[in-house]
Amino acid sequence: MTxxxxxxxxxxxxxxxxxxxxxxxxxxxxxxxxxxxxxxxSIAATLQRRAPDDAPPLTAVLGQRSETLYASVLGALxxxxxxxxxxxxFPAARTRAMLExxxxxxxxxxxxxxxxxxxxxxxxxxxxxxxxxxxxxxxDFAKRWSRHEIVTAGEFESARAWRATPVEPDAIAYLLFTSxxxxxxxxxxxxxxxxxxxxxxxxxxxxxTESDRLSQLFDLTFDLSAFDMFMAWESGACLCPPTPKQKxxxxxxxxxxxxxxxxxxxxxxxxxxxxxxxxxSLYPGLRLALFCxxxxxxxxxxxxxxxxxxxxxxxxxxxxxxxIACTAYRWDPARSPAESELGLVPIxxxxxxxxxxxxxxxxxxVAPGESGELLMSGPQVSLGYWKDPDKTAAAFVTPxxxxxxxxxxxxxxxxxxxxxxLVYLGRIDNQIKIQGYRVELxxxxxxxxxxxxxEVAIAVGWPVNPSGADGxxxxxxxxxxxxxxxxxxLKLRLPPYMVxxxxxxxxxxxxxxxxxxxxxxxxxxxxxxESS
Length: 532
Ligand code: AMP
Known about the structure:
The protein is α/β, with parallel strands linked by helices.
């Protein structure tokens, strides 16, 4: 019986074809495909033996850019589980909420995240199996956390003990939590068949080979990391995560890691430009440069094109709910400036098999040339939100007169005329991007209201930049408050990029014609206080 194709299939095929080629290179050390497979298979076999059967088929992985972390992702997949990425850069309370919501029975942790794990475990009720592949001895740890079952390096099963069990293409490949407007992160369930469709499109489009070396700038809690990992391993290429130092100044990383493929949010390119690291022909080794996650300014891609003269450059677009990316636009220096709007590179065309609908508020297609909300349908539309049928029903809809399920992206787009590419114009709601991270301002507001004990709190993206915002400024409906203490408490609940840089007291809010808080007026207030 041949196994149904899932996300692990490409990796296993590459292991057969290129056992000795590098699959992963971090900080000057390389791991060959055969080696990475053995580490993953050992984790998978250990999960097979130890992970509880009564939990959902999901395994949490906690870490950052370590060999163990990548082996853990693959280990979960070889076990037949979806992986749930947890991020040690997030406040422990947020990670705990994700872990508990996912109901994972097992968690794998890398060496650098063990101390953080203790903060996360503080308050976790359910019994977990904790796999610690980097630990030889965990006696102290086990004493402190006797409620949980701890498996240290010496207790792992051998790779040979792994037995492949069938995985359905409809099963969850990863469960990824993203900012939720009600104050609770939403878990997006992405199925294997969603990802394999995406990988097929990418394989056809970019022809990545075993000689390619791919960047890995995204944390695993950002779904764009799935492109880096699975595209590399699907093609026998090498995944090259930066060291923490290289991540801070990614310019030397391109040459040191011998990258041929660059994939980042536009904000990273802006950072390179600010550091003077987009000089002409600085990156001759790049053959492909992809940007995704937020609006891509024309001047940014032009500067990157000059720095990477041998690269094909693309702006790709997509929400987590439609699996990594679902439209693409190839930059052409002659044609593209005229096709761009608002100084932003178009988002282009849906991937083969995917369908775009530009719709009005009643979800009917707008007339050609009009702007509207972008809805996407096709094989990459994910399974919806974990244990949240209401939110799923609100966002995954069948528009009138259609039979397919579409995801409402909340993005405002336009196609100037037939044959013209889709251009991105902004959001129809209060979601913003900060350095590519997705933030529902309502989530910040809800936690701020709770933390400060006020009835009204409003957050706005500020200062704004062409791709989104650099940060958040919040307004508190109060005449007095201990703002430093409130910020400190927010830091315990929100990831750093969601914590307002500044909180202002605003006893009275300006209202718009509908009687709602006028966010535009608040932004104008910030603008005028900046210029005065
Ligand atoms: P996420 O789910 O974190 O990937 O965020 C998805 C959102 O990021 C989209 O709905 C857009 O608002 C924004 N986005 C992603 N890619 C692009 C792009 N190429 N241009 C403009 N906005 C983008």
